[in-house]
Design a protein that fits this description.
Radius of gyration: 16 Å
Order of helices and strands: HHH
Distance between the termini: 32 Å
Strand content: under 5%
Number of helices: 3
Largest sheet: none
Number of strands: 0
């Protein structure tokens, strides 16, 4: 049985996106974590795209896309200084 919000595209995605920010911080990618947080803050401050729980009418997808667009624009400003995460070393995979 599905929950009340399943497949309705109305849930606020910001907590899940903030979890990704925390993951990047944990992995030592503080710049990426900061970029994600700034993108979220910028979208909220603009106030154009908000889910129902924040007084708006935007869908989950619209909020996630607005945040994603802010990150893409930010990446353009950073340009070639973008750093790609290296592959995990074999020692990091031990115990999996």
């Amino acid at each position: 049985m599905k929950g009340g919000y399943a497949d309705k595209n109305v849930v606020n995605p910001i907590a899940a996106i903030m979890a990704a920010r925390m993951m990047f911080d944990y992995l030592g990618e503080k710049m990426m974590g900061s970029r994600i947080e700034k993108a979220i803050t910028d979208v909220l401050v603009e106030g154009k795209v908000r889910t129902h729980d924040l007084g708006g009418t935007s869908s989950t997808s619209q909020v996630a896309e607005a945040i994603s667009e802010k990150l893409r624009r930010d990446n353009g400003e950073i340009g070639r200084n973008r750093r790609i995460l290296p592959p995990l070393s074999p020692s990091a995979n031990s115990g999996w």
